[in-house]
Amino acid sequence: MSLLNQLFSRGVFGAKCKTCLSLAISRIKLLQNKRDLQLKNMRKEIAQFLQAGQEPIARIRVEHVIREQNIWAAYEILELFCEFVLARVPILESQKECPPELREAVASIIFAAPRCSDVPDLLQIKNLFSTKYGKEFVIAATELRPDSSVNRAIIEKLSVSAPSGEIRLKVLKEIAQEYNIEWDSSATEAEFSKKYEDLLAGSKQVCVEAAVSQAPSKQASFKSSTSNGAKTILPTDVKQASQNQQSPSHVSKLTFLTSSEIEPSAKNGTAAAPVSEIKTERISRPSDVLERARAAIASAERATAAARAAAELVNVKFGLLKLEGASS
To answer: Which of 156, 175, 282, 328 has its CA at a distance of 20 to 30 angstroms from the CA of residue 89?
Structure first.
């Protein structure tokens, strides 16, 4: 019985495969003729836009033309693959595994079936190959795994990615040359070669520009404060302060530079000594934060003591009232 089932299934597979392939070939030819007329009309419209000086509309329409041209080219390759498989259906029936010489054609048809909705016969062929060779074979071709053997041209023509600026410019030039239009492509070339800024990195660029613009103003304010005799904090003091904040036991010490040490050099007309060579006075003072914390702790302790005393008085009065009530 198993032998009869195998023979019967082989006959069914071969008959269905031939029927679907023949229908797919005839449908692809009809679609090619239809798309050929559509492409001619679309190219003529783009030529009219270029002649009227409406280049922005032509740049948008040319993407649709390129897409239709790619589909037309993919249909042409698929037609050849279907004819190739149709002539070798008896080989597919006789062998359990897909023959190596037919692997590219079969995998390309499986890959293109869900992407060519105008040819529903390809989906039926895909289902036939799935029942014969298994789901793993179909999944490998659909997901473009390394061992899928799908034709490279089919992948490129059926891709949904937008065409590059070079391809769009090339097609526009071909259309202008086809309809003998004198078209200056400099504006379109500049538009296609324009590199758009990354919007995600825009905030970083704004921050960098703001920091660069604020740097000169900070330097000017630093110079004005030193000339007015105000006390300024040196960069070395900032580092020491950050180190002292990391160790709680160490009292923060800041180094201040007074204007009395800068005035003699300015009066004598000599250049001021480097910051590292200037003698600085280290003034140690207690941390205001620690003082405020200690004061808060002391006030909290006083408040708790007062609350305890009030609670004791209430208890004493309550006890006296109880005694008076018991005696009466």
So the answer is: 156
Alpha-carbon gap, residue 93 to 107, rounded angstroms: 17
**Rounded Cα distance, 20 and 273, in Å:** 93
Does the pLDDT value for residue 164 go beyond 80?
A: yes
Residues paired with residue 255 on neighbouring β-strands, in sequence order: 282
The answer on pLDDT for 105 being more than 70 is yes
Helices (H) and strands (E) in the chain — how many of each? 13, 3
pLDDT tens track for 120-137: 999 999 999 999 999 999
Give the Cα separation of 126 and 10 in Å (integer).
16
254: buried, middle or exposed (CB in 10 Å: 19+, 13-18, 0-12)?
Answer: middle
Whole-number Å distance between alpha carbons of 89 and 83: 10
pLDDT over 50 (residue 117)? yes
b/e map 137-150, b = 16+ CB within 10 Å: bbebbbeeeeebbb
| Spatial CB neighbours of 55, under 8 Å, sequence gap ≥ 6 | 49, 187, 188
Q: Let me know how long the chain is.
A: 328
Strands, E assignment, the chain: 232-233, 253-257, 281-284
Q: How far apart are CA 102 and CA 151, in angstroms?
A: 12
Read off the pLDDT of residues 33-72 as tens digits, 9 standing for 90 and up. 999 999 999 999 999 999 999 999 999 999 999 999 999 9
Report field, pTM of the whole predicted structure over 0.70: no
**CA–CA dist 192, 59 (Å, integer):** 9
The pLDDT tens digits of the residues spanning 174-211 come to 999 999 998 988 888 888 887 755 445 554 454 445 55
Order of strands, sheet of 281-284, starting from the edge strand that comes earlier in the sequence:
232-233, 253-257, 281-284
CA angle, 97 as apex, 93 and 98 as ends, to 5°? Answer: 80
Query: At residue 12, what is the residue type?
Result: V
Report the pLDDT value the prediction gives residue 235, as an integer from 0 to 100. Answer: 42
125 backbone dihedrals φ, ψ, rounded to 5°: -65, -40
Distance between CA atoms of residues 129 and 124, nearest Å: 9
